[in-house]
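Thread: Newbie trying to understand structure tokens

Hi all, I'm a second-year student working on a class project, and my supervisor (Dr. K.) asked me to get a predicted structure for one chain before our next meeting. I've only ever worked with sequences, so writing a 3D structure as a token string is new to me. If someone could post the tokens and maybe explain what I'm looking at, I'd be very grateful. Here's the chain:
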Amino acid sequence: QFLEVHVVVMIPIRLSTTFKIVELIRVYIIGGDGTQKGAYEIFKEIRRRGLKVAVAGIPKTIDNDIAVIDKSFGFDTAVEEAQRAIDAAHVEASSAENGIGLVKLMGRYSGFIAMYATLASRDVDCCLIPESPFYLEGEGGLFEYIERRLKENNHMVIVVAEGAGQDLIAKSIPVADQLDASGNKLLLDVGLWLTHKIKGSLQEQKDGDDH
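---
Reply by user tm_fold:
Sure, no problem. This is what the structure looks like when written as tokens:
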């Protein structure tokens, strides 16, 4: 028997009854972080009730952030779709003087999608990922690089994983930690934050040049 569960919501009191009716001996639960947490809860309930049912969790996350496997389901598709967004951002950026295309991609704690999409594209000038901290101002900062790149090419494309720069955002926008339905910390919007910061930096440069 094979049972594929993408979203697991089971009431513990019905668990043993459910398994006895369909006579399951193995349950394969396919999904991401939240689904695997649900699989663990099912496993604990099965063990508590002494049922002879095996539970196997099969990773399925487009983030590809699982250490024991090379590639998870959906990752290649996510990278392909990310490239479409990058292509569109490049067209928009290159159509305006000093245009900047900013593409925010999935990647809470890992930047695999952002990095692979960047490597597959010829149009990305800067890729920001959670694994590599960055800073905005000063020598070697993001603002300095943006200024130099715009002078060289008149436009640029920045790709950022959603989990990048969270420490910087938290310093400038103090907010209480909040959790989503799966118990993960809600991320602050690095895309909107970077857009605001970059616009402010470019405006300061323009004002300085005018004087």
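A couple of things are worth pointing out once you decode it. The beta strands are 4-5, 26-31, 54-59, 99-105, 126-128, 155-161. The helical segments are 12-22, 33-49, 75-94, 112-120, 142-153, 166-172, 190-210. Feel free to ask follow-ups in this thread.
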